[in-house]
Design a protein that fits this description.
Blueprint: E1 81-84, E2 87-89, H1 91-103, H2 107-120, H3 126-145, H4 152-170, H5 178-191, H6 194-210, H7 213-220, H8 227-236, H9 245-253, H10 313-348, H11 360-387, H12 396-404, H13 409-424, E3 439-440, H14 441-463, H15 472-489, H16 496-510, H17 515-532, E4 534-540, E5 547-553, E6 555-562, E7 565-572, H18 574-582, E8 600-604, E9 607-609, E10 618-619, H19 626-636, H20 641-651, E11 655-657, H21 659-671, H22 697-733, E12 743-746, E13 751-753, H23 764-767, E14 770-772, E15 776-777, H24 779-793, H25 801-810, H26 812-820, H27 835-850, E16 858-859, E17 863-866, H28 870-879, H29 882-887, H30 899-916, H31 920-925, H32 931-941, H33 947-961, H34 977-995, H35 997-1014, E18 1016-1017, H36 1019-1026, E19 1037-1038, E20 1041-1042, H37 1047-1052, H38 1058-1068, E21 1077-1079, E22 1085-1087, E23 1095-1099, E24 1104-1108, H39 1118-1147, E25 1153-1154, E26 1158-1161, H40 1166-1182, H41 1185-1196, E27 1201-1207, H42 1211-1222, H43 1224-1230, H44 1234-1245, H45 1250-1258, H46 1262-1269, H47 1296-1299, H48 1307-1310, H49 1330-1333, E28 1362-1368
Parallel strand pairs: 10-12
Antiparallel strand pairs: 1-2, 3-7, 4-5, 6-7, 8-9, 11-14, 12-13, 15-16, 17-26, 18-27, 19-20, 21-22, 23-24, 25-26, 27-28
Helix pairs in contact: 1-2, 1-3, 2-3, 3-4, 3-5, 4-5, 5-6, 5-7, 6-7, 8-9, 10-11, 10-13, 11-12, 11-13, 11-17, 12-17, 13-14, 14-17, 18-22, 20-39, 21-22, 24-25, 24-27, 26-27, 28-35, 28-39, 30-32, 30-34, 32-33, 33-34, 35-39, 39-40, 42-46, 44-45
EC number: 2.7.7.6
Region (Disordered): 1-29, 1025-1061, 1324-1352
Keywords: DNA-directed RNA polymerase, Nucleotidyltransferase, Transcription, Transferase, Transit peptide
Length: 1393
């Protein structure tokens, strides 16, 4: 008798959040012990790591465990299987074709795929079983939808199911699993009755019993069975159930099921703003046109209004849940309705639809009306071709046709329009750091494909037949039960049934749309949009001066040069960009908006955040799925609980729009002026006069360059205003809502909000606009912190805390004037760099002071605690660097230390000395440099920015200080910004190098480790390369010339000469496939995604694209792996600190939000937040992080061998070269490779047999010579790490064309092509510029178009001669730690301030 009971599954079950106590945890003390500042608590007693039951607290770091290791280095490209035209690819891609064919009802196509899979795979292959199950599940769906046994079609479907199961599964020797048997059981229950049904059920149950107790138990107690099905099955197989179990389920099944909203703390919106009483967002180009302004209000966002504030709380919560579900499921449909209404309003007024003043909504309806018939016609052609395939010719429709059939054409047309138009208004571009309108075709096609795939997933969830899948509670409980088993027995102790679940889940996770098919579909759709989308453009006739209106294409396909490469772009018509800049953009608001209910808690890879819209928890680049594989393995091990809870804590913070700031922003926007960071409507630029004709050609060239610079600036302002217009429209749509920002993270663990358009990680205008939805009484400390926050926002952040309080109190008159007359008064708040945040603080403080009791005022404004160059803080703690710790406020002090000011002063001093000595550039700069000139290079230097990148950063600041100085000049005697920035960057790097010795040592050590990993072969690879059984047969000869040797042959034949050694290295490079992988203190595995990948040519209807799709069998990109590892490792540490702090705040009931290293909470909780931030940082660094990392590397890369480089001219290099020369004939005769010799020597030395160890010691190889004569200093420095240490400048200056490759951001690899306007939620004018410093070259980005021309030829860089030798994998010792004790941080009040 089984003892386990089935869990009842009812749809009324809801998820609940952990309790949030408002009391601090044990060990906290709020006593005050700081003589310098009586208001700062300094009893930082750390809370115990253990709970009362002795188990570790969920907010504490868990003990170190053996790392997860997934070896993919010997994996080869998937075998391509062809079924028919358009159906070919790897096993995983065929599974996607299978699912697509099933969903569009082409079951004959699905049968052909299953047949080919069965031919190419073993009978017990998981993909074969998965395919049969999916096919039979579709028959079950048809059976249910046709009424089961009540209809003839239902009976025919059941017969087809049973026939397939017997002939294609059982007779072919395929062993069914529990999931497949459950499908057959449900089919029998739905399609049969009486004794025949009972016999069939008993047969399936007996079959389950023969497969093992685990399978039988899973079948009998499956969560897929509804209560009625369970009752019927239980009566037939009653002997397997406990007494009373069936009666309990039967009684529960009689109760009606009602879907209800999840139970969580619902924040009722208050202080509603009547949108009818405030001005519209500025519209231009419509003077005298009489256009009726379409009423938008909340209907622009959601069509179902909220209940009144006095309605019952449960009813309001239920309505909010319904509205959120409606937004997610029908956002595209709502957008279409808005376009239609806008067009109908024009027709009612009798306005000519060809007028240039047509609003965006009506214009998009016109595009939609033209695009939809074109797509419907294309769909007809697809169906005609797929219905009668012609095997004699291939056609793109065979490839993208089935994908096109998956979605309604109405949704496809609207999605294409929304995606392309929102990409025009995307904000800043990652690469150029500028606002741009041009759209690269590669990112446009891949992003649109991802959008359509996500929309398809949403559509699939809507079409699911009720009862065919387990409900949320059942799925969650099954997951929890599986995790419990894993935690108790380990992943190797799972039952057969549980292993099958994990395996099937892994297969499902891998099934996505084939990359090439997705690109072909997107290209076709974009081409259709280009052909059909037009807009009226009015111009003045040059001769008659008459206004002439003509219809022009809204988008154009062109070629353009980017970084010397000619690629395809889609360019919007200038008339369209004008409209996007000046008109309300409510008609474009559709996807991934802020939520109006608390997001779903994260529980697995794509379960969390939006209620129905799937989103992965990690943003990964296209192609290589290593990061996902490691995450799923860690999740199966039960290690992701803290990561899930940390992201959930960030996601469930309720926000709202600050009504007063919104009114001011709307007024400022409508004025068209350049107010705060708002771009002006009509920017003015002084055009330099054209030189006289007789002037020399250099002056003419300089004039043209200045004109180009002005045009670039004008375009940037134009694009920036367009994006800000978008943000303001989103704010208007949600102004009366309580909103939430679901978060996910990049591959390093850094959290980002998923809603792209408006979130708290935006620029100053957005940060000033958002406040917490729930207020908390200020109290005495809160009022003080509110004053400090206002001074900090106003730019007085380098003063002590008491000086900031004094600053605010001395400026109360300005503060009141700013709050009462923000645009008509003295505008004091506009003097701040963060003007909108300053204005929000002015509103908050004046309201608090005007209240009867300011300490009881409910404050909602987030008060920020910012780290001092957080990357350097981590480096200083890692290296115990006392000097560095003082510079970044890890050491206690009476006032905040400012590393940027320290570097700026050192630079100014050097410049002044040079100016006195007569240096021309120094004389121009003397006394004019500011802290802002050095801040960005200092901030990003710790994240690996190159010298060239720093020059670019400095040049942008100098352009503001010296607007009349040209950016460059052919004459070196003419002072220009490029020369000035080079000079300043040199001084900055020199100052940094002298200040942070400990950080330099840690950076260098991290680079050394990455160098060895990037040049290593795994034991599996070594065995494959050296074993006689696995070595490839000799190559055939063509005529008198042999074929090019394979890499392993090259490794054999190194003869000690420089040329041969270089050939050996180049031939070995394709074999290096080990990427740098490490585990954060929160047990999140981080996998660097940088690989060299061969291009993949894809012919599309627009142009031929050459795309990169990295795979695990591609060799790694050594330069990227080395250069990105130090900054990525530091990013993973600050991400850990942030998530750990979020967990601790959530535990004690505090509101917590973050922008990486800027943490926000209510004013009254800042003191407690300070304690928790220090606790989290100390808890992290109390562990030996670098020592643990070295241990992990030793375990992860155990048994590997790496190709070390030794200087050829060194004594050791000469000895190795001499040995090779002397033994060249011996190598040729034995046909043995050095790799095989070194591997054998390592095996003998590690043997337990003394005789074998002696043999190993007696072997003479290059490795043994290195062991006897060399040490760590013998290694030749890696050229990839040159100039990469903190403050280092490259010894060999590369050409700028080559050096420019180093300014791309590795975070770009983490950004999916969808969901982020401008590629990032970060604004580059903020502290988040640290992202830019994670600089690596971009010559092998995951998706890149074909380079048809190269404008610049890179200069070839010479390097020292080297010899290479295979060595057993070891890692250098961690640099000696300095004397700084991280626990001293407890007394530092300016750690975050």
């Amino acid at each position: 008798m089984q003892t386990q009971s089935r869990r009842l599954a009812t749809v009324t079950d809801q998820y609940t959040n952990g309790a949030t106590s408002s009391m601090p945890p044990p060990g906290f003390s709020m006593s005050f012990r700081n003589d310098a500042d009586k208001n700062v608590p300094f009893d930082f007693s750390q809370a115990s790591r253990a709970q009362e039951d002795g188990k570790p607290r969920h907010t504490a770091l868990r003990p170190y465990e053996d790392p997860i290791i997934i070896n993919s280095t010997t994996q080869n490209p998937h075998k391509l299987i062809k079924v028919q035209h358009g159906i070919h690819g790897s096993t995983v891609e065929l599974l996607q074709h299978l699912h697509t064919s099933i969903r569009i009802g082409r079951l004959s196509r699905a049968e052909a795929i299953i047949e080919r899979l069965a031919e190419q795979s073993k009978a017990d292959a998981p993909e074969v079983l998965h395919a049969h199950t999916a096919y039979l599940e579709e028959h079950l769906r048809i059976l249910v939808s046709e009424g089961g046994r009540a209809t003839a079609k239902g009976l025919d479907t059941l017969k087809a199911m049973q026939r397939w199961f017997e002939t294609e599964v059982r007779s072919q020797g395929i062993r069914p699993d529990a999931k497949l048997l459950i499908v057959m059981i449900r089919g029998a229950i739905r399609g049969m009755e009486g004794d025949g049904r009972d016999r069939a059920l008993r047969r399936y149950v007996d079959l389950a019993e023969s497969l093992g107790e685990d399978v039988q138990d899973e079948v009998l107690r499956s969560e897929d069975l509804d209560d009625n099905e369970f009752t019927i099955l239980g009566k037939v197989a009653s002997k397997y159930f406990e007494q009373g179990e069936l009666e309990e389920v039967e009684e529960a099944s009689k109760q009606p099921a009602v879907e209800s909203a999840p139970q969580h703390d619902y924040v009722v919106p208050t202080d509603f703003l009547d949108l009818d009483q405030i001005p519209e967002v500025l519209q231009t180009g419509q003077k005298g046109g009489g256009l009726h302004r379409v009423k938008r209000a909340m209907l622009s966002y959601i069509s179902k209004p909220a209940l009144p504030a006095d309605a019952p709380l449960d009813a309001q919560r239920q309505r909010a849940y319904e509205r959120q579900k409606l937004v997610e499921e029908t956002s595209v449909d709502i957008a279409i309705d808005q376009w239609r209404e806008a067009d109908q309003e024009l027709k009612k007024l009798g306005i000519n639809t060809s007028m240039q003043t047509k609003p965006m909504g009506a214009l998009m309806w016109q595009w939609y009306s033209q695009l939809l018939p074109a797509l419907q016609k294309e769909l007809e052609e697809v169906k005609k071709l797929l219905g009668a395939p012609d095997e004699r010719r291939d056609d793109d429709r065979y490839h993208y046709g089935p994908l096109l059939e998956l979605l309604p054409m109405e949704k496809v047309a609207a999605t294409v329009i929304l995606w392309v138009v929102t990409r025009v208004a995307r904000g800043r571009d990652w690469d150029t750091k500028a606002y741009e309108f041009d759209m690269k075709l590669n990112s446009l096609t891949t992003g649109l494909g991802k959008q359509l795939e996500d929309e398809c997933s949403m559509e699939l969830s809507r079409r699911k037949v009720k009862g065919l899948q387990a409900n949320t509670r059942a799925a969650r409980r099954a997951k929890q039960a599986l995790l419990k088993k894993i935690n108790q027995a380990g992943s190797r102790g799972l039952s057969t049934a549980d292993k099958a679940k994990v395996l099937d889940t892994d297969l499902l996770q891998q099934v996505t749309w084939p990359f090439s098919h997705k690109v072909k579909l997107s290209a076709m759709l974009i081409q259709k949009l280009i052909e059909t989308a037009h807009l009226p453009v009015t111009r003045e006739h040059p001769r008659t001066q008459e206004k002439v209106t003509q219809m022009q294409p809204a988008f154009m396909h062109r070629s353009k040069y980017f970084s010397g490469k000619k690629i395809g772009v889609v360019i919007p018509n200038p008339a369209l960009t004008n409209k996007l800049e000046s008109e309300p953009l409510a008609s474009m608001i559709a996807k991934r908006m802020p939520m109006i209910v608390e997001p779903k808690p994260w529980t697995k890879w794509n379960e969390g955040g939006y209620l129905h819209y799937p989103a992965p928890i990690i943003r990964l680049p296209q192609g290589d799925k290593s990061g996902k594989d490691y995450f799923l393995a860690a999740d199966a091990k039960g290690d992701m609980g803290q990561v899930y809870d940390g992201l959930t804590a960030l996601s469930k913070v309720p926000w709202k729009v600050h009504k007063d700031v919104f009114r001011v922003q709307l007024e400022a926007w409508n004025s068209g002026e350049e107010i705060a960071n708002f771009a002006p409507l009509n920017p003015h630029f002084d055009i330099p006069p054209e030189p006289e004709i007789k002037t020399d050609i250099d002056a003419k060239r300089t004039w043209l360059l200045r004109l180009q610079e002005i045009q670039n600036k004008r375009s940037g302002v134009h694009s920036k205003r367009c994006f800000q217009n978008f943000q303001l429209e989103v704010a208007r749509a949600i102004v009366n809502e309580t909103i939430y920002f679901p978060h996910n993270m990049d591959f390093r663990g850094r959290a980002y909000p998923i809603p792209p358009y408006l979130n708290h990680m935006g620029a100053d205008n957005v940060r000033g606009l958002l406040v917490f939805a729930e207020g908390k009484p200020l109290g005495e400390t809160g009022l003080r912190w509110l004053k400090i926050h206002l001074a900090t926002a106003a730019g007085h952040d380098k003063a002590s805390l008491e000086e900031r309080v004094k600053f605010t109190e001395e400026h109360l008159d300005d503060i009141y004037d700013s709050a009462r007359r923000p645009l008509d008064g003295r505008r004091w708040w506009l003097q701040s760099e963060d003007a909108w945040q300053t204005l929000a603080a002015c509103f908050e403080l004046t309201k608090a002071l005007d209240s009867p009791d300011p300490t009881k005022f409910l404050s909602t404004i987030p008060v920020q605690q910012d780290g001092t160059c957080n990357g350097l803080q981590h480096y200083a703690a890692l290296g115990g660097d006392e000097i560095g710790a003082r510079q970044v406020n890890l050491e206690p002090g009476d006032r905040p230390a400012d590393v940027y000011t320290a570097v700026a002063e050192a630079v100014k001093e050097e410049v002044h000395k040079d100016a006195i000595a007569g240096h021309r550039i120094a004389k121009e700069l003397d006394g004019k440099l500011t802290r802002k000139c050095v801040k960005q290079p200092v901030m990003t230097n710790v994240y690996g920015v190159t010298f060239f990148g720093a020059k670019e950063q400095v040049q942008r600041q100098l352009a503001v200080l010296f607007p009349n100085v040209p950016a460059s000049h052919r004459d070196d005697n003419v002072i220009n910004l490029r020369a000035m920035s080079h000079y300043v960057a040199t001084k900055i790097f020199k100052a940094l190098g002298s200040m942070f010795g400990g950080a330099q040592a840690i950076q260098h050590w991290l680079g050394q480790c990455a160098d060895r990993v990037a040049m290593c072969l795994t034991p599996e690879q070594i065995k494959q390369l050296t074993s006689p059984e696995t070595k490839a047969p000799p190559k055939a000869k063509r005529g008198n010339r042999s074929l090019k040797p394979e890499p392993e042959d090259k490794i054999v034949s190194s003869d000690g000469t420089t040329l041969s050694d270089r050939e050996t290295l180049n031939s070995a490079k394709p074999l290096f496939k080990s990427t740098v992988v490490w585990t954060t203190p929160l047990r999140l595995p981080v996998v660097q995604p940088y690989r060299k990948t061969n291009t993949k040519d894809i012919k599309t209807s627009l142009q031929n694209l050459r795309l990169h799709e990295p795979q695990v069998w591609d060799p790694i990109s050594k330069r990227k792996q080395l250069q990105a590892f130090p900054p990525n490792f530091i990013h993973s540490l600050d991400a850990t600190h942030m998530l750990l702090s979020a967990l601790k705040c959530n535990e004690v009931g505090m509101t917590f939000a973050s922008i990486h290293d800027s943490f926000w909470t209510h004013a009254c909780d800042v003191d407690r937040l300070s304690i928790l931030l220090r606790d989290a940082f100390i808890e992290m660094h109390a562990e030996n992080i670098t020592g643990r990392l070295r241990e992990e590397f030793q375990a992860r890369y155990k048994g590997c061998m790496y190709l070390a480089a030794v200087a050829r001219d060194s004594p050791l290099g000469a000895s190795i070269a001499q040995f090779r020369q002397e033994n060249k004939d011996t190598f040729k005769q034995s046909k043995s490779s050095e790799l095989a010799m070194e591997a054998e020597r390592a095996r003998l030395l590690n043997s337990e047999d003394a005789e074998e160890r002696k043999q190993g010691e007696e072997m003479v190889t290059p490795g043994s010579i290195f062991a006897s004569e060399g040490d760590e200093s013998a290694f030749a420095p890696s050229v990839e790490l040159e100039g990469r240490r903190l403050g280092d400048m490259p010894e060999h200056h590369e050409s700028e064309a080559n050096d420019a490759e180093h300014i791309a951001d590795p975070a770009q690899a983490a950004q999916s092509s969808e969901g982020i306007v401008g590629g990032s939620v970060l604004d580059k004018d903020t502290e988040a510029l640290a992202e830019e410093g994670s600089a690596i070259d971009d010559d092998e980005m995951p998706v890149e178009e074909q380079a048809t021309e190269t404008l610049k030829v890179k200069k070839k860089k010479t390097s020292a001669r080297k010899v290479h030798v295979w060595l057993p994998m070891t890692f250098p010792e961690v640099p000696l730690k300095g004397a700084f004790d991280v626990t001293r941080l407890k007394a530092s009040q300016y750690f975050f301030h």
